[in-house]
């Protein structure tokens, strides 16, 4: 069964189809989570619980998912994961001030406050970049997403894309060049 069929069934309450949509992303979300949490937060927070909470939230909200492609699905799951992670960090920050300071220093979602103008500029830059990534050819979009968003090593990217390690790296370089040109012209 293809992605669109599973999604349609999941939106109408088919738990098996929903499980088939969520389960393949569990490991990727857990890997992504390690980049969101600082070292001390990883000790205090159980990453499996955070990912499980994110998947549970996705189960509750599957009908609100507006996309129809796997890339959009994964982006939606990552956004839910970021929200769950921010909630865990916030909860721990309320309990222990030092944990909060450590999390902020690690590049997590608990970032220093931006001015409203800086936030608007940052959001616009992200939209421009996301739009440029979405316009890339499928293979280039996939290698960018796996390398940047999922933080996968090239060997893992090569294996999952059924390419050699060198071919995956060349694809990455070409995708980055094309992305830079695209962002400069927009």
Task: Summarize it.
The chain has 11 helices and no strands. The chain has 186 residues and is mainly α.
Structure description:
The chain has 186 residues and is an all-alpha fold. The chain folds into two domains: 1-112, Rna Polymerase Sigma Factor, Chain: A, CATH 1.10.1740; 114-186, Arc Repressor Mutant, subunit A (Orthogonal Bundle). The chain has helices at residues 3-11, 15-22, 26-36, 39-44, 47-61, 70-95, 97-105, 116-135, 138-149, 154-160, 165-185.
SSE order and pairing:
Blueprint lengths: L2 H9 L3 H8 L3 H11 L2 H6 L2 H15 L8 H26 L1 H9 L10 H20 L2 H12 L4 H7 L4 H21 L1
What are the main properties of this structure?
186 residues; mainly alpha; Rna Polymerase Sigma Factor, Chain: A; Arc Repressor Mutant, subunit A; 2 domains; 11 helices
Distance between the termini: 38 Å
Largest sheet: none
State the name of the first-level CATH class of the largest domain: Mainly Alpha
- The CATH architecture classification of the largest domain is Orthogonal Bundle
Shape: globular
How large a portion of the residues is in β-strands, by DSSP E? Answer: under 5%
Based on CA atoms alone, the radius of gyration comes out at 18 Å
Which H/E pattern describes the elements? Answer: HHHHHHHHHHH
| Helix run count | 11
In the predicted model, the low-confidence regions spanning at least 5 consecutive residues are 102-111
- How many strand units? 0
Structural class: mainly alpha
Do you know the CATH topology of the largest domain? Rna Polymerase Sigma Factor, Chain: A
Query: What number of domains?
Result: 2
What percent of the residues sit in helical stretches (DSSP H or I)?
over 70%
Q: Whole-number average pLDDT?
A: 82
CATH superfamily of the largest domain: RNA polymerase sigma factor, region 2, helix turn helix motif
